[in-house]
Amino acid sequence: MLNEKVPVVIHNTLEKVFESARLSNSKTDIESFYTELIQSPLYLLSDASDPADNEDAEELAGQGAQSISIMQWYIDLEDGDAFPFTPVFTSQQALDAAKTQMEKEGTEYHGQLELEASTVLQMLVNADSDIMLNPNTSLSKAIDENEIRYMLFPSVGLIEHRGQLQIVGEVLNAGLPLLDVLRQMLSSYSKVNAAYLIDSCRLDFQKSCSDHQFYLGLTFDDTDYADELSRIRSEIFNIHRKIELNGWDISIHLVETGDEMSEYLLAQTSPFYNRSLMSRIKSWFS
After folding, report:
1. What's the average model confidence in pLDDT over 201-210?
2. Rounded to an integer, what distance in angstroms lies between the CA atom of residue 141 and that of residue 28?
3. Pfam families, alphabetically (predicted)?
4. What gap in Å lies between CA 116 and CA 20, rounded to an integer?
5. How many helices and strands (H and E) does the chain possess?
6. Beta partners for 143?
7. What is the structure's pLDDT at 143?
């Protein structure tokens, strides 16, 4: 791992929007960074004495980082352990600067790879590996495995909610046990029209994601739903006893017009639960 911080000269659009996002920390600039990143090629160091060419690397990427011998660096921790991460570079010039510094420090490397960002991100999230973009430079950022996972969501969104920036994505795993539990629960409520499920985290662009949780978005058939909403909140509180959620909370969001989370849910996601026509008909005569 490099010990000296290396200055980075801006060479491409990705690095330009990256610098803007770091300096402004604004939602617009951060959105531009994520959009540009997922569409860009990225550059990695290889640990192999005979590294795969780019075509072979793209094919092997699905088997994980070790299949194509991507180099990892380590951060020494206070307890004596070392935390591994994958150094990833935003341009050939940024990678060349790192290689020059490695040569000065006597650190070996065996080659390099250029891969599409989507390939790199999928490979590293499968390997549970964190990323450091342009490590030990003036243009660096840590991206943990959760942030990587959000970037791979087809419906990834960046919203302001309760005064905080949140990165969000629709839960698409149809086999997730939580979805079945929620469907069964909601089916007993006559006024719930539709339900959406996303997972989210609070985003500090200079650091990483934190405060992971699910949001259950609900729409109701009429305005007289206060009692049902209260009972649903009580049931949600007890769901942790039925199913393992890895410590994540479930918050309820009432889907209405005018707030960013509701707009995201309605425009970019699909409900996992819709009240059946038979249930609607029964409610008309109850």
Report:
1. 83
2. 18
3. SseB (PF07179), SseB_C (PF14581)
4. 22
5. 10, 12
6. 131
7. 87
Is position 7 within any domain? no
Q: Examine residue 147 and state whether it is found in any structural domain, yes or no.
A: no
Tell me which residue range forms the domain holding 110: 13-141
Q: Which residues contact 66 (CB under 8 A, 6 or more apart)?
A: 127
Please state, as a whole number, how many other Cβ atoms lie within 10 Å of the Cβ of residue 9.
11
For residue 250, which of 128, 242, 258 has the smallest C-alpha distance?
A: 242
Q: What sign does the dihedral 208-214-218-223 (CA atoms) show? A: negative
Domain boundary pick from 141, 175, 201: 141
Report the pLDDT value the prediction gives residue 27, as an integer from 0 to 100.
92
In whole angstroms, what is the distance from residue 30 CA to residue 36 CA? Answer: 10
Q: Of the residues 80, 111, 141, which one is the last residue of a structural domain?
A: 141
Number of domains in the chain: 2
Distance CA 1, CA 109 (A): 11
How would you label 180-192 residue by residue, b for 16+ Cβ within 10 Å and e otherwise?
Answer: eebeebbeebbbb
pLDDT recorded at residue 115: 92
